[in-house]
What we know:
Elements: H1 39-73, H2 94-109, H3 119-128, H4 137-150, H5 158-175, H6 180-199, H7 202-214, H8 219-240, H9 256-288, H10 297-311, H11 320-327, H12 333-352, H13 360-381, H14 389-405, H15 408-419, H16 425-442, H17 450-454, H18 473-476, E1 483-485, H19 490-498, E2 509-513, E3 519-524, H20 525-534, H21 541-544, H22 558-568, E4 572-576, E5 584-589, H23 590-605, H24 611-624
Parallel strand pairs: 1-2
Antiparallel strand pairs: 2-3, 4-5
Helix pairs in contact: 1-4, 1-5, 1-6, 1-8, 2-4, 2-10, 4-5, 5-6, 6-7, 6-8, 7-8, 7-15, 9-12, 9-13, 9-14, 9-16, 10-12, 11-13, 12-13, 13-14, 14-15, 14-16, 15-16, 19-20
Amino acid sequence: MAPLCGNCCTGSISPRPLERRPLPPSPIFMFSHPHRHSILFLTAASMVLALASTVVAWVLVQLIGVITSIAFYHKISWGLVSPSHHQLGALVIFLPVIGGLIVGVMARYGSPAIRGHGIPEAMEQILLNRSRIPPKITILKPLSAAISIGTGGPFGAEGPIIATGGALGSLIGQIFSTTAGERKTLLAAGAAAGMTAIFGTPISAVLLAIELLLFEFNARSVVPVSLACATAAAARIWFFGHGAVFAMPAVGTQTPGVLFAFVVLGAVMGLAATAVSRAVYWVEERFEHLPIHWMWWPAIGAVAVGAIGYIAPRTMGVGYDNIEDIISNRLPLQIVAWLCGMKFISWAISLGSGTSGGTLAPLLTIGSGIGVLLAAGFNHLVPGLSIPLELAGVVGMAAMFAGASHALLASVVFAFETTWQPDTLPALLAGGTAAFLVSHMLARHSIMTEKIARRGVSVPNSYEPDPLLHVTVATVMETDIQTVPGDLKIEELARKIGSNDPRVSRRQASLVLDSDGALLGVITRGDVIRAVETAPEGSTVLDASSRRLIVVHPDETLHAALEKMLRHDIGRLPVVERNAPQKAIGYLGRAHLLAARSARIQEETVQEPGFWSRKEQEVLAGKGA
């Protein structure tokens, strides 16, 4: 028997009719195995997951409230409470240190994965660990965050619940038999549901999942995530009530001059967002140079949190009330400036120390404050300009969110959903886009991706359609097929290849046909060499070829063809008609797949001459003539 081809075919070489392969499954029901779960399972699981994430969010908020009440007021009280009204005096400095010590011990002996602010860690698990998050994170992350925030940490509850929701989704994906792609969808659904449960922002949560976790837009991912967020939004009403998270006075329609001013304001916010992101990681680098174990870093960072909290009590805790006060213009400008500056220092040091916390609430506080201050400055410097400070606060928090996270659409919609002010949308889009543009030009990575990028991980920063999903085999296949008759002696074929006969030497493989032109198999140069060395004298090409073929049809996509190549470890596919499975009409190899990708790259990179360039060339050509 001749050896099997290790390059382009699989299966037995015994004579048999061509095996016709079934069509690939519909993209909506992407089974990698008949018993794997479809989009229907992902959707049902995501909706159940959303309910669980909402319950966890409620429990986390209550736990933060209980710890805050015990630590600052020596009583038990449910629900979020601001620690800024405490009567502890200088003793308040030690509360964050105690919390930092507990978090450090939990990270050291529980799981180091509880450190950080949630989203970067979820992204890292998606990119490096096939969306597998250890189950214990679902307990340790919210508990450590509650201790950190409840003892005065300057974080919001959203980061930990996003991480916990993602961990719950990953856990479901590990309990059931799923693919890595399906686990990623469940992880994103849990994370987005957690964000919705805290802020009541289902649309923004879907966009955030697409921009920071999924980096794709298809039915398998978007449908489960969207319905998870819708479920979480409905369940949130039972647990948290109904209404805008950040209530503010109504904002009317703005003049063109004010909208243009928000473009300038957004550009400045982009600079501020870049500076904030770099400052956080600069602080983190300083901690990494400390000559002590990282378990002690949260307690060291908490010293600054306590000291700043002593002189600026509003900087401690989640600070959602601070955001509402700023965008409602209830605070004097001096207080806003003091609060933003102190909040930034406290948060940057604490987050850089590696404690368990989040980024979104501090960014919103800092951004809304800077927005109000910039608007007040513009109104003072530009005669006739009257930017509403309330609107400037909303645009500022959206612009800071967009600039720091590089999640433009999520940040714009988030500001609208948390305030329920439809007239803010033009200003939000103007300021958020300007901030995103500036920060994107200044920094390749965002505050969410910088940490994992420094570890050598390539982080996607955009998503685009795969050209292989939209190009059919018929578009790129080679129709001038290299064929050999099955009854040709193997020695004769070897001689033709050695003499560079163009009929058999253009490709590494040839299709084997019978006298009627029916496809029998495929033979490669490797098959020929092995047959010459080991096959009995007088062996034919058919004897040495591989005859259990993997084929592709002309109306299939290149993506489906690539899947077949990868699944069966082959490098080329015969193209056959569906209604005539033994009639070869083409040949598809790796080079054809690369050609389709190359065409897409040329569309994005090759600049075509415009109208004036063509006219200039015509004039120069006429003068030369």
